[in-house]
Amino acid sequence: MLPGLKQGEEKMSKSDPDSSIFVEDEAAEVSRKIKKAFCPPKTVAGNPCIEYIKYIVLPWSDEFKVQRTDKNGGDKIYKNFEELAQDYETGTLHPGDVKSALIKALTRY
């Protein structure tokens, strides 16, 4: 089970709809929830956004594409979790970039 999207939630909760992404959520709802999600900088363990990428996005699409300006390092496509985790832990990958890319990945279809 994936962790809830809010800080300190060990797992998603049906009683708190903002702590989970549901299959029937519209793109705007997914975007709102991810924007508010707990995503501490340089912390992979217990980070719900990173776990969504690890357990949903990468297995589903075999890549995670982050779009950034050239000033911020340019676009990057992650093909494996280890590289993404390393960039996130070093601060090369910013939480805002993760959230934007996660929203696009989850609402692509």
Walk me through the structure.
This protein has 109 residues and is mainly alpha-helical. Helix content is 42%, strand content 6%. The protein has a domain at 40-106: Orthogonal Bundle (Tyrosyl-Transfer RNA Synthetase). Strands 1-2 form a two-stranded antiparallel ribbon. It comes from Oldenlandia corymbosa var. corymbosa.
Number of helices in the DSSP assignment = 4
Q: Which fold name corresponds to the CATH topology of one domain?
A: Tyrosyl-Transfer RNA Synthetase
Class by alpha and beta content: mainly alpha
| Percentage beta strand | 5-15%
CATH H-tier superfamily of one domain? Tyrosyl-Transfer RNA Synthetase
Instruction: Determine the oligomeric state from the structure.
Output: single chain
SSE order, one letter for each helix or strand? HHEEHH
Number of strands: 2
* Ends apart, CA distance between termini: 23 Å
Main sheet summary: 2 strands, antiparallel
Q: Percent helix among the residues?
A: 40-55%
Average pLDDT metric: 89
User: What overall form do the CA principal axes indicate?
Assistant: globular
- What is the C-alpha radius of gyration, as a whole number of Å? 13 Å
EC number: 6.1.1.1
GO molecular function: ATP binding; tyrosine-tRNA ligase activity
Pfam families: tRNA-synt_1b
Protein name: tyrosine--tRNA ligase
Summarize the structure.
By secondary structure, this protein is mainly α. Helix content is 42%, strand content 6%.
Write the layout of secondary structure elements.
Elements: H1 27-36, H2 48-61, E1 64-66, E2 76-78, H3 81-90, H4 95-106
